[in-house]
């Protein structure tokens, strides 16, 4: 009887695999009992199929539930498949001290 691969190891490999696939930066992952649930945005149907196939081939994955959404860029403000930042100039205001979290004092 083969030993099941722990969900944490599956999740680590899924995240690493997605990191190597440039069109899947907006994909979120959940793993439970070897079943991987994917959600988020990809730029086109080919990227969606590629991500689903890559993940299905990972050792220990029993099933892939895909809730991936193809976002061609028409329904968002960003480029195809890229995250939209709320700070387009790339500044990290929290680190720069520009945000006052204590508004009462």
UniProtKB/TrEMBL annotation:
Organism whose genome encodes this protein: Stenotrophomonas humi
Domain of life: Bacteria
BON domain: residues covered: 6-72
One Pfam match: BON
Amino acid composition bias (Basic and acidic residues), ranges on this chain: 82-105
Protein name per its UniProtKB record: BON domain-containing protein
Residue ranges, annotated region (Disordered): 69-105
InterPro entries to which the protein is assigned, alphabetical: BON_dom
């Amino acid at each position: 009887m083969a030993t099941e691969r722990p969900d944490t190891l599956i999740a680590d490999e899924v995240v690493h695999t997605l990191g190597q696939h440039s069109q899947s930066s907006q994909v979120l992952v959940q793993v439970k009992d070897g079943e991987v649930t994917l959600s988020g945005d990809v730029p086109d149907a080919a990227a969606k199929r590629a991500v689903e196939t890559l993940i299905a081939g990972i050792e220990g994955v029993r099933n892939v539930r895909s809730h991936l959404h193809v976002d061609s860029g028409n329904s968002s403000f960003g480029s195809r498949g890229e995250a939209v930042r709320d700070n387009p100039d790339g500044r990290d205001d929290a680190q720069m001290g520009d945000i006052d979290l204590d508004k009462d004092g």
